[in-house]
Design a protein that fits this description.
Number of helices: 10
Shape: globular
Length: 199
């Protein structure tokens, strides 16, 4: 985390001495670093700092006109709201990301996946499972030739892991545990962090 913060400061300093395309490219890079800083803080449990850096990433992605990154950051803000047990924000932010995303895209499926957790946190199992089914359907029909670099990790297995998490939130612990076991069986050996989360 300190290294990423240092890099953001260096990028900020470099921007002050540049104009035109170079400055814009640096701002874009700064937005990407901000999203990464948010993820590191979120993964370490510091949700307030994660919110701060996602807000910076959202502002800077808007400033450079990267629509797909903006959609992705909105979806990530929904994911963070879910981690913070704020169902209303998780649902509303995901709904905004879904409406901004290209129809049938990976980013739309990502947002719907996080919206499902919001519904689970609100104890609305029906809407939760509907969102997950729709997200899974989108993933199954993706045209990867038209995809952006954002959320490239999203696949059917990821959606099923989120289903397991939602089932756990909804109190269906046996189903959730079995879904997590299936997910661990399919994980590459190098995915140690994910294995730890699923355990």
């Amino acid at each position: 985390i300190p290294a990423v913060h240092d890099h953001i400061r260096v990028i900020q300093q470099l921007r002050s001495g540049r104009d035109g395309a170079d400055r814009r490219a640096l701002l874009h890079l700064q937005a990407e670093y901000a999203e990464f800083a948010a993820w590191l803080h979120q993964d370490s449990g510091d949700h307030r700092q994660a919110q701060y850096w996602l807000d910076r990433a959202l502002e800077w992605s808007h400033a450079v006109g990267d629509h797909e990154m903006t959609v992705y950051v909105m979806a990530r803000k929904s994911q963070l709201a879910g981690d913070m047990h704020d169902p209303e924000s998780a649902i509303d932010l995901a709904a905004a990301a879904t409406s901004m995303a290209r129809e049938g895209s990976r980013l739309q499926a990502t947002a719907q996946t996080y919206k499902a957790l919001g519904h689970a946190l609100a104890s609305d199992g029906r809407e939760c499972l509907l969102e997950l089914d729709e997200a899974h359907g989108l993933v199954d029909e993706l045209d990867d030739g038209r995809e952006s670099a954002w959320a490239c990790w999203l696949d059917g297995s990821y959606v099923e892991v989120q289903r397991a998490r939602c089932l756990s939130v909804l109190g269906s612990y046996n189903q959730a545990a079995e879904a997590f076991r299936r997910a661990m069986r399919d994980l590459p050996a190098s995915y140690r962090r994910d294995r730890g989360v699923y355990l």
